[in-house]
């Protein structure tokens, strides 16, 4: 199994749950994707 991949999914799901409260928060989504791509 891939611990790093699972950890990444956990972060993504945490963000999805957070973003789910405000679907119009596009800037937060962009910032999150930029953060993930910089890891």
Task: List its traits.
about 0% strand, single chain, about 40 residues, mainly alpha
3D structure, described in words:
- By secondary structure, the protein is an all-alpha fold.
- It has helices spanning 3-19, 26-37.
- The two termini are 20 Å apart.
- The relative contact order is 0.13.
- The model has no long low-confidence stretch (mean pLDDT 72).
List the uncertain runs: none
**How would you describe the shape?**
flat
Structural classification: mainly alpha
Strand content is under 5%
* Overall average pLDDT: 72
Total DSSP helices: 2
> What is the radius of gyration?
11 Å
- SSE run: HH
Task: Please count the beta strands (DSSP E, at least 2 residues each).
Answer: 0
How many separate domains make up the residues? 1
Instruction: Tell me the span between the first and last alpha carbons.
Output: 20 Å
The biggest sheet amounts to: none
> How much helical structure, as a percent, in the residues?
over 70%
Please give the structural blueprint.
Blueprint: H1 3-19, H2 26-37
Task: Give a quick summary of the entry.
By secondary structure, this protein is mainly α. It is built from 2 helices and no strands. It has one domain (3-37).
